[in-house]
Specification:
Blueprint (H helix, E strand, L loop, with lengths): L6 E4 L2 E4 L6 H7 L23 E4 L6 E2 L10 E3 L3 H16 L5 H4 L6 H9 L23 E3 L9 H8 L7 E3 L6 E3 L16 H5 L5 E3 H6 L7 E6 L8 E7 L4 E6 L14 H5 L14 E3 L5 E3 L2 H19 L6 E3 L5 H14 L5 E3 L4
Bound molecules: iron/sulfur cluster (2 copies) and FE2/S2 (inorganic) cluster.
FE2/S2 (inorganic) cluster (FES) binds next to loops.
Length: 360
């Protein structure tokens, strides 16, 4: 028995749990995989998709592991013919309510729904449901598109908007087959409280919420290479994945690493996620420039530029003393870069005149 006396038995494993934990959380600690579609560790459970149903001894109905609370002595089975049958049934049900073909469905973002269908199988190809959901075709915001024919009404996007971004810009609206995602008065996102964080895109398990610029670029995320980097818009240090088209040597879009893996916990702001077109801007400096004697700029090598910088700084120190120099670094740099600036100031130029813009 577990040391705190509170345990559940999941697939024959005796697992301890904390008060308030769900079956899913207790199972995760023992690496027992229960598939989910509408669950996210940052959000309250909605129990909307029914993908995570498991058998609980003494309960006539299967229960959703994502929201069913563990209680002492509970006995749960996650791998039985009944549970497997339900997973395939649920996957077929959702696929009938969206675009079933994975190639088409993943024209931009990956689809968790289709990945699960491949992993767990389906109950067969069902006749597609006649689509009733309203979209917002006149939403002219520059970054986010909602495609109603791919939505399975899991409410991850609206819960993210409420509970993480805390702006409630989007909401589930209408009833039954008409249930859709909308804004107040169906306004464009830019006329709503939306902060264009893109979190709704990130959590969407079907690609119904998608990035307009990447969609226009026309290469699915699965054909892009993810390169981990640090966002350089502020000092928080959010980790980002640059999605690179190697054939064209272009960053197509920025995504966040999964929740729980980096300090930003899967979140990004509008700049981190969408303001990346500067990378390939034609006005961007890509080589160092130095001034000629006549004051005009000319291109040079990094070695030459750095030699001139060092000579200039040393010259000032020799003529006016070490403390005539001062170094100011930026909160847009990483902690490591800021560390190096102060190290350079103190160790190489022998001055403590060093500052960083975020300190003021
Ligand atoms: S972009 Fe962010 S703020 Fe806007 S609707 Fe999506 S989650 Fe809400
Ligand atoms: S748009 Fe995506 S995240 Fe939002 S309810 Fe539909 S399927 Fe779920
Ligand atoms: S993940 Fe549990 S009901 Fe959707």
């Amino acid at each position: 028995m577990a040391s705190n006396g509170k345990y559940v038995v999941i697939d024959g494993n005796e697992l301890s749990f904390e008060d308030g934990e769900t079956v899913l959380q207790a199972a995760a600690r023992a690496d027992i995989e229960i598939p989910t579609l509408c669950w996210d560790p940052r959000l309250s459970s909605a129990g909307a998709c029914r993908m995570c149903l498991v058998e609980v001894e003494g309960s006539r109905l299967m229960q959703p592991a994502c929201s069913f609370k563990a209680t002492p002595g509970m006995v749960v089975r996650t791998q039985t013919p009944k549970v497997d049958r339900n997973r395939r049934f649920i996957l077929s049900l959702h696929l009938a309510d969206t675009i079933a073909d994975r190639e088409v469905a993943e024209d931009n973002n990956p689809s968790k729904l289709h990945a699960l269908a491949e992993d767990y199988g389906t109950a067969g190809e069902w006749t597609p449901v006649v689509q009733q959901r309203q979209g917002r075709p006149s939403d002219t915001n520059p970054f986010i598109e909602f495609r109603p024919d791919r939505c399975i009404a899991c409410s991850l996007c609206t819960r993210y908007c409420d509970q993480v971004e805390a702006v409630s810009a989007i909401t589930l609206t209408a009833r039954g087959a008409h249930t859709t995602i909308s804004t107040a008065d169906s306004k464009t996102l830019t006329d709503s409280t939306c902060e264009l964080c893109g979190g709704c895109v990130d959590v969407c398990p079907t690609g119904a919420m998608t990035e307009k610029p990447a969609l226009a670029y026309g290469k699915p995320e699965r054909e892009l290479e993810k390169v981990r980097s640090t966002c350089n818009f502020c000092g928080v240090g959010c980790q980002v994945d640059l999605n690179v088209d190697r054939d064209a040597n272009r960053v197509v879009k920025v995504t966040s690493p999964p929740p729980g893996t980096t300090l930003n916990d899967g979140n990004l702001c509008v700049k981190g996620r969408f303001a990346n077109d500067f990378i390939h801007h034609t006005d961007r400096l890509t080589v160092p420039l130095v001034r000629d004697d006549d004051g005009s700029f000319r291109e040079t090598t990094w070695d030459d530029a750095l030699d001139r910088t060092v000579a200039g700084l040393k010259g000032v120190a020799e003529r006016h003393g070490d403390d005539s120099l001062a170094f100011v670094s930026s909160s847009r740099c990483t902690g490591e870069e800021n560390y190096l600036v102060q190290k350079m100031a103190r160790a190489a130029f022998r001055t403590h005149n060093v500052h960083q813009c975020a300190a003021t």
